[in-house]
Specification:
Shape: globular
Largest sheet: 8 strands, parallel, barrel
Organism: Halomarina rubra
Protein name: Glycerophosphodiester phosphodiesterase
CATH superfamily: Phosphatidylinositol (PI) phosphodiesterase
Number of domains: 1
Helix content: 25-40%
InterPro entries: GP_PDE_dom, PLC-like_Pdiesterase_TIM-brl
Order of helices and strands: HEHEEHHHEHEHEHEHEHE
Pfam families: GDPD
């Protein structure tokens, strides 16, 4: 990523976000196929020769106790590592890098990777969607904030955002930063306004668009049950129900891509593509009938 110029969205958001025409985003490196957020997962999701390779890989990032950005999703170590009982419930951002490097992620034989290693593992012809999960201090609330609170959270997130974008600046990948946390988006815009950002929708559609408008987000990331006009709308999932609102049309009118998470079935794929969504965040490319592009 070249600092000071836009590489993720140079001209047309809808043509470039989700990696130059590809409409599949490999969630944590296709987490149902490979051990999530490992170097193997990220590399294979991008380079597999069996027709399932995608051109956008998503990963999660947070700091360890010593400040280095590491690729990890959960707050604690217990679900995906072999951490002993004394460490299993410990927060990643309270765990030194040396300890994280001694753990095995999902029996992969690999440790928790550094973000810099993830950038090296994925060819720079493949776009990266980096989701900010935690800044190493109290992350503040998710969702829409007051203007004053947003400024406070921007300051809280900024040191970690700077470290992540410094890593990205050493590589040439197209980059999309996403987060549930407004503070992370605010800090990203403050550190480098040319980096493409996406607000991850969760609680409500209107609040989500308010955040997207506030930071002129290049993309929005709603859950699949937010897509009005499909049989999926308001189906039980991680949040909802929602008021009827044509999210896709509104986003497209503003020039924003719509990347939907986390798509689990071929039926969902059919409905979401028919609705005009631009990106599908998936754990397993098999839901697309073996075609990830």
């Amino acid at each position: 990523m070249q600092r000071g110029r836009s590489t993720a969205v140079p001209d047309s958001t809808l043509d470039t976000v989700c990696s130059q025409g590809a409409d599949v985003i490999a969630h944590r490196g296709f987490a149902d196929v490979y051990p999530e957020n490992t170097l193997t997962a990220l590399e294979r999701a991008a380079t597999a020769s069996d027709g399932t390779a995608t051109t956008t890989v998503e990963l999660d990032v947070m700091p360890c106790a010593t400040g280095e950005p590491v690729v990890f999703h959960d707050a604690t170590l217990d679900r995906v590592t072999d951490a002993p009982d004394a460490l299993a419930g410990q927060a990643v951002w309270e765990t030194p890098l040396e300890t994280l490097r001694s753990l095995d992620v999902l029996d992969s034989g690999e440790p928790v990777p550094l973000l810099a290693e993830a950038f090296e593992a994925v060819p720079d012809s493949v776009a990266l969607n980096v989701e900010f999960k935690h800044p190493g201090v109290d992350p503040g609330p998710t969702g829409l904030l007051t203007r004053d609170a947003a400024r406070t959270e921007r300051t809280r997130w900024r040191p970690f955002v700077e470290r992540v974008l410094d890593v990205a600046a050493d590589h040439d990948h197209d980059l999309l930063v996403s987060s549930f946390f407004e503070g992370a988006l605010a800090a990203t815009r403050a550190v480098d306004p040319d980096v493409a950002v996406a607000n991850v929708f969760y609680r409500g559609i209107e609040d989500g668009f308010t955040v997207a408008d506030r930071y002129d987000c290049e993309a929005v990331h709603p859950p699949w049950n937010m897509i009005y006009g499909t049989p999926l709308f308001n189906e039980p999932y991680v949040s909802g129900p929602f008021d009827p609102h044509d999210l896709v049309a509104r986003a497209h009118e503003a020039g924003r891509a719509v990347n939907v998470w986390t798509v689990e079935t071929a039926e969902q794929v059919r409905h979401l593509r028919a609705a005009g969504d631009d990106g599908l965040v998936v754990d397993d490319p098999a839901v697309l009938g073996g075609e990830a592009r």
